[in-house]
Amino acid sequence: MKLEYYLLDMPLIVPFKTSFGTDVNRKPLIFRLEHNGIVSYSESVTDQDPFYSYEDNDTALHVIKRYLAQNIKDVPDPEEFLTRSSNIKGHNMAKAALEMLLYDYRAREMGKPLHEFLGDSRGYANVGISIGMDNINKMIKRIDDALKLKYKRIKVKIMKGEELKIVSAIRDVYPDINLSVDANSDYTEKDFELLKKLDKFNLVYIEQPLYHDDLIYHARLAREISTPICLDESITSPEKAQKAFDIGACSVINIKPGRVSGLTNSLKIARIARENNGHVWIGGMLETGVGRSYNIAMASNKLIDYPGDTSPNSKYYIRDIVKNPYNMEDGIIKDYNGAGNGIEIDEELINKYAVERGVIF
Ligand code: OSB
Ligand code: MG
Question: Of 228, 243, 295, which Cα lies nearest the Cα of 266?
Answer without folding.
Answer: 295
